[in-house]
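Open question from group meeting: does this chain pack into something compact, or does most of it stay loose? Before anyone orders reagents, we agreed to write out a predicted structure and look at it together. Recording both the input and the output here so the notebook holds the full record.
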Amino acid sequence: MRPLGIQVSQLFVLVAVGTCGESGAPIGKLAKALALDQTTLSRNVVPLEKAGWLRVARSPHDARSRVVLLTRAGARMIESAYPQWEAAQERLRRTLGAGPFEALHAALLGGIRGRTRVTRCGQA
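Structure tokens returned:
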């Protein structure tokens, strides 16, 4: 994904925000969904906002809270990066073999699920 100018960790943030739809993701719930503290997430959002892929705004429900919104450019980045993500996964599957690849995938998912009970858009 390097040719696109995005890192995998940044793509995960874009996708997580995208699952929240037009109302955006409250930063606290998004941090919880990504198993990050709010300070780390805020630091990670800054370059994505500068790139024009995300926008941070005050919550319409609570002026003290901020929400993160996916821009059209961010949605286009996800669409551009997804085929490269799939290709990378397929290369890894071929390199490791199907069994070890699936075992690694299950182990990683288990680790993520063990850190948080959050599902779509930060909702428990």
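Observations to bring back to the group:
The mean pLDDT is 85.
Residues 72-96 form the longest helix (25 residues).
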